[in-house]
């Protein structure tokens, strides 16, 4: 068991990074002696840089650099509610006729170590599992504007950041095409406008050129509701996407359709656009609606009650079947939510993944090195002769993103299968630093993220 009362959540890479993080940690140590100490998540923290107070910025730095927040919201019972088995409810009279699989990954982000030299073998252990599904989804959390220089996440984040990727970075995201590729990507996140409107539009063109559908943004007002509905084996899945923030940017007043921005981290957000697009998806024949919701608070193991309530409300009022959560950067738990369909009144069940975590990325915050891959079985059939579609199976692959560091630089990144690494023989191939970090990652996953029946669903 990890002693989280004195847990350092970061692992800097370079000498400069180590010195900077030590300096920042020292500052927070002094402040904690004379000022605020955080045990629980800061209530009402919306994490939108455009609106954050100085106190909220200090809280974000505290939990990132100084001391991890491991408690759920005070007196909420949130931790207990996730300590249950995770199994889909399949009606007894459901007769399946056809099925597909959907793979979902988290945030694809630009770091200097995400390159073809460092990541040549990144996907070796898990690429076939992830890309072999009928549909493959992730969140593209960077513009890809070929007309501008690449801009990566700094090792130590101390100011506003503006990302941009290039085709080489995207090749790494896509496993160099060895296993296939993505079918659909969300482009609605807090970095959507890092390269302004032109950067987002060029990103959409880039994806179109790759034959990849995108959701969460539109090139024109007429295309605003042209979200993708992808069909495989007779099953039609709609993909919607929305983001809680655009960091220090805003959607231009003259192009309100450009990016789907809703203040989802604030109380009682206006979700009328989600309801409207979900209604359109059903009218267009979608059997299942997946919503990528970029929201929540970063670097903490549990969503706050307000985030839980909002995600459940979106499912309940819009009839969303699957929530693919992002932004917290580390994985958070999954749960099923039962409600009555807002149109038909029939009982429905949604799967809510509060956060899949970072995916292809390498942050110095150690919990970010534990991405989740989800592979869902989606079945279409009948109940008493009427067509129904259900999530009928869940597989999770817990990953340890293992870095080889030499002379202050990452020289190799590998996605390693945590289930395999639970065996001593598999762990023995890791270096000392990786073995230590792996122990922390496994404790984090078992203590906070994975359901109690993880032996059934983690593959």
By DSSP (H or I, 4+ residues per run), the number of helices equals: 12
Number of DSSP strand runs = 13
End-to-end separation in angstroms reads 23 Å
Instruction: Give the class-level CATH name.
Output: Alpha Beta
Here the CATH topology equals: Purple Acid Phosphatase, chain A, domain 2
What is the residue-mean pLDDT, rounded to a whole number?
96
Question: Helix-strand pattern, N to C?
Answer: HHHEHEHEHEEEHEHEEEEEEHHHH
The CATH H-level homologous superfamily:
Metallo-dependent phosphatases
Helix/strand class: alpha/beta
CATH architecture label: 4-Layer Sandwich
User: How many distinct folded domains?
Assistant: 1
Q: What's the Cα radius of gyration?
A: 21 Å
Strand content: 15-25%
Detailed description of the structure:
The protein is α/β, with parallel strands linked by helices. The chain contains 12 helices and 13 strands. A 7-stranded mixed beta sheet has the order 4-3-2-1-11-12-13. Strands 5-6-7-8-10-9 form a 6-stranded mixed beta sheet. A hairpin with a 2-residue loop joins strand 12 (386-406) and strand 13 (409-417). Helix 1 (15-34) packs across helix 2. The radius of gyration is 21 Å and the shape is globular. It starts with 14 loop residues before the first helix and ends with a helix.
């Amino acid at each position: 068991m990890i002693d989280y009362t004195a847990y350092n959540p970061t692992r800097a890479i370079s000498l400069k990074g180590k010195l900077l993080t030590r300096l920042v940690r020292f500052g927070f140590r002094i402040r904690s002696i004379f000022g605020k100490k955080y045990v629980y998540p800061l209530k009402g923290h919306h994490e939108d840089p455009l609106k954050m107070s100085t106190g909220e910025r200090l809280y974000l730095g505290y939990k990132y650099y100084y001391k991890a927040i491991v408690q759920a919201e005070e007196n909420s019972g949130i931790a207990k509610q996730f300590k249950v088995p995770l199994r889909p409810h399949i009606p007894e009279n459901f007769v399946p006729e056809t099925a597909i699989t959907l793979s979902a990954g988290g945030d694809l982000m630009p770091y200097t170590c995400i390159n073809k030299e460092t990541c040549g073998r990144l996907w070796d252990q898990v690429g076939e599992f992830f890309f072999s599904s009928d549909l493959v989804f992730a969140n593209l959390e960077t513009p890809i504007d070929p007309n501008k220089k690449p801009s990566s996440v700094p090792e130590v984040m101390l100011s506003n950041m503006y990302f941009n990727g290039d085709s080489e970075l995207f090749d790494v995201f896509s496993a160099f095409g060895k296993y296939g590729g993505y079918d659909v990507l969300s482009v609605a996140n807090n970095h959507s406008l890092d390269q302004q409107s032109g950067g987002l539009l060029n990103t959409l063109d880039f994806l179109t050129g790759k034959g990849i559908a995108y959701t969460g943004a539109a090139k024109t007002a007429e295309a605003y509701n042209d979200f993708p509905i992808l069909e495989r084996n007779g099953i039609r899945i709609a993909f919607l996407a929305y983001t809680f923030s655009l960091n220090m940017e805003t959607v231009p007043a003259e192009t309100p359709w450009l990016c789907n921005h809703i203040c989802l981290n604030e109380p009682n957000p206006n979700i009328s656009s989600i309801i409207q697009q979900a209604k359109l998806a059903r009218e267009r024949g979608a059997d299942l609606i997946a919503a990528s919701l970029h929201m929540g608070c970063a670097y903490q193991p549990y969503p706050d009650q307000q985030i839980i309530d909002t995600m459940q409300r979106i499912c309940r009022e819009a009839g969303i079947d699957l929530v693919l959560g992002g932004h917290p950067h580390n994985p958070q738990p999954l749960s099923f939510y039962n409600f009555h369909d807002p149109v038909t009144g029939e009982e429905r069940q949604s799967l809510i993944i509060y956060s899949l975590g970072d995916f292809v990325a390498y942050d110095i915050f150690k919990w970010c090195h534990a991405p989740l891959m989800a592979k869902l079985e989606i079945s279409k059939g009948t109940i008493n002769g009427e067509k129904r579609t259900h999530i009928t199976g869940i597989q999770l692959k817990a990953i340890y993103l293992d870095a080889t560091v030499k002379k202050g630089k990452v020289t190799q990144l590998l996605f390693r299968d945590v289930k395999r690494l639970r065996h001593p023989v598999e762990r023995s191939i890791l270096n000392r630093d990786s073995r230590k970090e792996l122990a922390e990652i496994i404790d984090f996953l078992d203590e906070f993220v994975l359901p109690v029946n993880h032996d059934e669903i983690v593959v």
